[in-house]
Amino acid sequence: MPTPRRTSSPRSPKLATPAVRAKGDEPVSTPRNRPAPITRSTRPTKAAYFNRELSWLAFNRRVLEQARNARHPLLERVKFLAIVCSNLDEFFEIRVAGLIQQVDNDVLPSGGVDTLGPREQLRRIHSVVASLVEDQYHVWHHELVPALAAEGISFVKPADLSAVELAWVRSYFEGQVSPVLTPLALDQSHPFPHLGNKTLNVVVSLDDPATPELERHFAILPVPRILPRFVRIEADGATTHRHIFLTEIIKLCAGELFPGYVIHGAHAFRVTRNSDLYIDDEEAENLLKKIEEELRNLRRGAAVRLEIEDGVDDRIFATLCDHLSLSHEYVFRLDGPINLLRLMALADIDRPDLKYPNFIPANISPLREPAAIFETLRERDVLLHHPYDSFQPVVDFVEQAARDPQVLAIKQTLYRTSGDSPFVKALIEASRQGKQVTALVELKARFDEANNIQWARQLEEAGVHVVYGLIGHKTHCKVALVVRRESDGKLRRYVHLGTGNYNPRTAKIYTDLSHFTSREVLTADAAALFNTLTGLGRSPHFTHLLIAPFTLHRRVIELIRREAANAAAGRPARIMAKMNSLVDQPVIDALYEASQAGVQIDLIVRGVCCLVPGLPGLSENIRVRSIVGRFLEHIRAFYFHNDGGEPDVYTGSADWMPRNFFRRIEVVFPLLDPALRRWVIEELFAIELQDNDSARLLSAGGGYLPMPRPANAPLFSAQSYFLASAGQRVQAAKQP
Questions:
Q1: How many CB atoms lie within 10 A of CB 585?
Q2: Same domain for 562 and 579?
Q3: Which are the catalytic amino acids?
Q4: Residues 289 and 309 grouped into a single domain
Q5: Using one digit for the tens of pLDDT, what is the confidence trace for 256-267?
Q6: Were 574 and a residue from 28, 154, 484, 649 both cysteine, which residue would form a disulfide, CB within 3.0 to 4.6 Å?
Q7: Is the pLDDT of residue 654 over 90?
Q8: Last residue of a domain, one of 539, 570, 601
Q9: In what order do the strands lie in the sheet with 153-155?
């Protein structure tokens, strides 16, 4: 990663080349390829927008494609299959739950940018999810299970067990499973039990042989989360990797829990519940206490999905649906194990030949010496590309600030962090040393609320000023500000700005950018942001940082329209943008107008994309790619050609979604160093636009197609390129 010395002027010199493009990519707009100006007949209609929920499901299908891709190591393919399950869980817990609530409350069908109402969305979602789940289990049974068996890793059913193995399984049940199971009868004297969100259960059908004329009895066996969902069979000290699912063991041995009864059937099932928090910040006097109460209530949220093994008795099926108040369109009968997410545990098998080659990012950046961090940042800006560049300098930045006696204050946002966070420890250490320490902890980081409450309390006990941000807005930005007294007695600020969370664990599997600088124009804006979040500021002023909800949305549209105006005037124009999601209609409409003016636009959108590319007269100059690979693409970066001036290159924490623009505190920051801008343009964007392996091209019909590739052209993966490049930099650093 280039890290040049600071230029004397905040405004860097103009790049030598007025237009930057990747090899084989489209040229910037010129009068020859510029279409006619926008007319009334080409204004967007509802057909010009994809539905957000269906677009998200299309993304999850691309994850499933990775499970089928034989170029990935086998155990990594299993992990992709598990991720599909995890993604669907969250989709039902949040997105489907919200749509069901809209239907139940007779909310008017305003819909999203595509105007689909909640009922129609739910109908289409059911159809798409049913097909996706069917394909998911087909991949497991017909592709992954045989491939695993060929590698000596097998999954067996009771009928496949030898006599010795069967005895071992029964002994395992008696010693490890039976003592923690509690049978719950379903009859008039036993109320239907509450079933926790996403907990595994087994429903059993049984008869009393003394009264065969009476109706069949039913019981439920809740399975504690602590029990492993599949078990390696270790009969006679076996060294083979033969596994059996826990549910198969329970079904085999269920009769031991109901002595005197005849078992007619047993089937595993799982309930997914609404897991969104409902909190009115203005009404909640104590936000921390209110969120704790809501977390307890989430276990009792309304059921939004039932997954159950196929072949279950019709009366059991009807009983479950009735007690859960679920109609049949929210029920999925599965031909296989419940909750494929638990297959993630297969990664613990010691088979490195079936996994990605081990990659440990090397810390070879200019910030690799913690004691010299501030000295380095006085001379230059630094940009790191994670996980290819080590995340350690980000940790070192805060830890060194905590240790340095010349540092007077540290201010940091915490949205999601790791279980044993070095950042929390560093902030506590700094506070105990008498430094002024402020932490903006976002309590409503979805699914991390409990962790963040724990960190907030630890920080407060250590004397850290803990703030929960602006009412009605999640603090989603990634900013760490350090105030230090220099040798001349003057105070200087240093700042880290990132696209990803302060989480060393996810930094190893997410692609993100980290920017370090001591430029006054950026650090002053960062200081103004913290003052706004911790104090009172109705109309804050920012000069260079684009801050949501204050300036970001307006400026993004201005930048897009500037490119459109340049193209309409016959000047070069170009937009490249990389993000997780593109949903905001005004931004999409601005991109449509720019396309019609002749701007060549390349979007790399990992997940949801409501923009429809390739529509004649509207978006034929827009191409949308999605990259799904070994690492989760998490970078947000934006390039605007800006003919007549320096290219504008921004990166930051915000996707182009209404929630990011208006309901979150987001920071998008410019790269002012010309070499760092060139790296983003000529490396990050150029390389990812060449990807014809992991990338897929979004079609006007909503499908994702393989990238066009000339015959006999080699496959090219951007992530593989960056991995190889990181290895080359390590080798170069070792040279004398």
A1: 16
A2: yes
A3: 476
A4: yes
A5: 999 888 888 899
A6: 28
A7: yes
A8: 539
A9: 153-155, 241-245, 230-232
Same domain for 433 and 534? Answer: yes
pLDDT, position 229: 93
CB-based contacts of 271, cutoff 8 Å, min separation 6: 195, 196, 197, 198, 199, 201, 303, 305, 306, 307, 324
The whole-angstrom separation of Cα 420 and Cα 423 is 9
Identify the H or E element spanning 577.
strand 574-579
Q: What value does the mean pLDDT take over residues 335-358?
A: 93
CA distance 364 to 663: 38
Q: What three-state secondary structure class fits 701?
A: coil
Give the CA radius of gyration of the chain: 28
Residue 545, SS3?
Answer: coil
Q: Where residue 382 sits, what CATH number does that domain have?
A: 3.30.870.10
Q: If you count them, how many residues does the chain have? A: 736
**DSSP 8-state secondary structure symbol assigned to residue 11:** S
Quick: pLDDT tens for 439-477. 988 765 454 456 666 777 788 888 888 887 666 788 889
- Would the pTM of this model clear 0.90, i.e. be above it? no
How would you write 400-451 as a 3-class SS string?
A: HHHHCCCEEEEEEEECCCCCCCHHHHHHHHHHHCCCEEEEEECCCCCCCHHH
| Residue 27 located in a structural domain | no
The two three-digit tokens of residue 394, written as one number: 């980000």
In a domain, 12, yes or no: no
325 plus 383 within the same structural domain: no
> How far from the centroid of its chain's Cα atoms is residue 668's Cα?
19
Res 391 pLDDT > 60? yes
pLDDT in tens, 270-323: 999 988 754 444 444 454 454 445 544 444 588 999 999 998 888 888 889 998
The phi-psi region of residue 469 (left if phi > 0; otherwise alpha if psi is between -120 and 50; otherwise beta) is: left
pLDDT at position 105 is: 73
Tally of structural domains, the chain: 3
Let me know whether 574 and 635 are in one domain: yes
